[in-house]
Specification:
- With 148 residues, the chain is mostly helical.
- It has a domain of 48 residues.
- Helices cover 80% and strands 0% of the residues.
- The chain has six helices and no strands.
- The longest helix is centred in the middle third of the chain and has 43 residues.
Length: 148
């Protein structure tokens, strides 16, 4: 079996189990037992080192398991959104690979969409006030400009 497949199964199993109530209970019991053992060890440096070292190691290893799961979830979400964008007539296919843009490009894109949001809010406000002079072309023009 390939190492990547083993890692996939292992990280999934660890993630599933770490999120269960019994895992929290086990961690809580461990801390309570550690606290209770303090008088036996005279609250020594060794006693403190036991909990510090064990929690540091577990945290260090869990970072990689959690990151793997988060990366996988992000990729799956991107693919689902890409499918939705691709299936909607009139949607801009330029957004399919938006995650590949630089931070500056994303900020510019966000600014463009902020303008669309403002136009839509203005349109809705005018509609509710009864000023329905058919301002919709303003939003349609803004959308058409976005799609270039």
């Amino acid at each position: 079996m390939k190492a990547s497949k083993v890692w996939e199964r292992f990280s999934h199993a660890v993630s599933e189990q770490a999120g269960r109530p019994w895992a929290f209970g086990l961690a809580l019991v461990t801390v309570v037992l550690w606290l209770a053992s303090g008088p036996l060890f005279g609250f020594s440096n060794t006693w403190q080192l036991i909990i510090n070292t064990s929690t540091t190691i577990i945290t260090f290893l869990m970072v990689f398991v959690i990151q793997h799961g988060q990366n996988k979830d992000s990729r799956a979400m991107e693919l689902k959104l890409n499918e939705l964008i691709a299936s909607i007539r009139g949607a801009s296919n330029r957004l399919i690979a938006v995650e590949e843009l630089s931070d500056e490009e994303l900020a510019e894109l966000r600014h463009r969409y902020d303008k669309l949001i403002a136009a839509a809010v203005d349109e809705e406000r005018d509609r509710r006030r009864g000023d329905d002079d058919d301002d919709r072309p303003r939003v349609r023009t803004a959308i058409a400009t976005q799609r270039g």
